[in-house]
């Protein structure tokens, strides 16, 4: 039967297999990445900034559903998840705490990507003109800004004194 019938088509089964294998693989990769990234931050970021990042990590772990909602919404957006797990790893947030929301959001966003990828593969000649678009550049810029915002914000001052300030002097 086709996709309008009760039985899934071969294409839908391939999509589902891709998602069932790919999403947990992505989560495992992000888990491993966030497990070691703090070692790099210890080597290249000042102790004062590392202390701030640990502080924000402790604050975020106590926020319950709000953090889960943020992770879920973030993974629904077409933004890379590397900045998210970089920040979580440096702040030493327990990665197992954020993985459930990541899995749900990633499954949904990857399903959209797989279906979109199939469409693109079937219509490549009409799409090739927009390969380097403002959307792809915007996604890259936003991902970079998320990392910079996380690293350069003085989180202790923001959370304790409710004053936003930045410091670009974070490197050893």
The share of residues in helices is over 70%
List segments where confidence is low: pLDDT < 50 over at least 5 consecutive residues: none
Number of strands: 0
Q: What is the CA-based Rg, rounded?
A: 19 Å
How far is the N terminus from the C terminus? 62 Å
In short:
The chain is mainly alpha-helical. The protein is built from 8 helices and no strands.
What does this structure look like?
This protein is mainly α. It has a domain at 10-112 and 146-161. Helix content is 75%, strand content 0%. The chain is built from eight helices and no strands. The mean pLDDT is 81.
Secondary-structure map with pairings?
Elements: H1 10-44, H2 47-61, H3 65-76, H4 82-90, H5 95-122, H6 124-127, H7 134-152, H8 155-161
Helix pairs in contact: 1-4, 1-5, 3-5, 4-7
Entry keywords:
single chain, 172 residues, mainly alpha, 8 helices, 0% strand, globular
């Amino acid at each position: 039967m086709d996709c309008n019938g009760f039985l899934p088509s071969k294409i839908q089964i391939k999509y589902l297999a891709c998602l069932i294998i790919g999403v947990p693989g992505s989560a495992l990769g992000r888990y491993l990445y966030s497990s070691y990234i703090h070692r790099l931050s210890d080597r290249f970021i000042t102790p004062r900034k590392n202390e701030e990042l640990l502080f924000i990590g402790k604050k975020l772990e106590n926020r319950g559903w709000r953090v889960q909602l943020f992770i879920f919404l973030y993974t629904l957006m077409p933004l890379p998840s590397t900045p998210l797990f970089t920040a979580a790893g440096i702040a030493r947030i327990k990665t197992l705490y954020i993985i459930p929301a990541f899995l749900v959001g990633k499954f949904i966003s990857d399903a959209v990507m797989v279906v979109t990828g199939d469409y693109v593969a079937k219509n490549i000649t009409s799409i090739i003109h927009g390969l380097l678009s403002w959307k792809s550049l915007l996604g890259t810029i936003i991902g970079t800004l998320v990392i910079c915002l996380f690293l350069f914000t003085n989180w202790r001052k923001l959370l304790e004194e409710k004053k936003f300030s930045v410091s670009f002097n974070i490197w050893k």
